[in-house]
Amino acid sequence: MSFLNSIRGLGRGTKKTKKDEMASPFYQQSNHSGNSLRRQQSPTKMSPTKQRINHRQSSPVRNRNRNGGSVPINKNLSPSKNTVMSTTEESTNDDLPLFMCEPFVKTSLVKGSFKTIVQLPKYVDYGEWIALNVFEIFNNLNQFYGVFVDYITPENYPSMNAGPNTNYLWVDSNGQTVNLPACQYIEYVLTWISNKLNDQSVFPTKSGGAFPPNFMKDCKNISRQMFRIFAHMYHNHFDKIVHLSLEAHWNSFFSHFISFIKEFSLVDRNELTPLLPLIENFEQQGKII
Fold first, then answer.
1. What is the pTM of this model?
2. What is the DSSP secondary-structure string of 178-208?
């Protein structure tokens, strides 16, 4: 069942046929019946910015910096090791963010929880089930981010923040923490995750391929970084999501993601602080169990 229609014709009031919904290339919830669970193809190898630019030119992709220059993407940096979270003093602003306001906080495509969807099916390999879900969630998040990538500029979002109290920093190869524009931070993360998913030594796809001892550690690091993208999008771009009538799709996608990482303990709860009020609200609604 598809949850996210193609970007064409997403304005409010657009009539969608069942056939159109089933053909959606975005967020898709597989029934995971157990047939052919092995991942048959590599995930998207290029982040949204790379895909967009490569349609225009064949030169290497570079991100713009604040001064209008370009900064090459360093694929050797691992965000699992080279990011830290900096928290400022608690804000005194009592205004709720848009995603916590009604009716948006109660908007969803799915009634009930995602508990049965994320649980390990009987007779399915544990590692393969984790890999399959990480694979699909990343592809959906990558495509969803691509819808808004043109709006996430260094000038408008000079830091990778998730609300007024959280700013994600990058640690470069020299061990120095640096504040990167959100677009550059996300590009680094998407490139790093894509490289991991396409590495046969980490995510084997051939029949009989064994998952490495550090497989779960990699999945936890990937999940933590994907959550940071969710957090940035909710705090900075939810108005755009509402403008495209995608709040129900986005909330359902996020509920699915949180249900998955909660089911398999992939992300510590203290890492979820920027969106913890939203998560607790979804838990009270029964979307997340």
1. 0.74
2. E---HHHHHHHHHHHHHHHHT-TTTS--STT
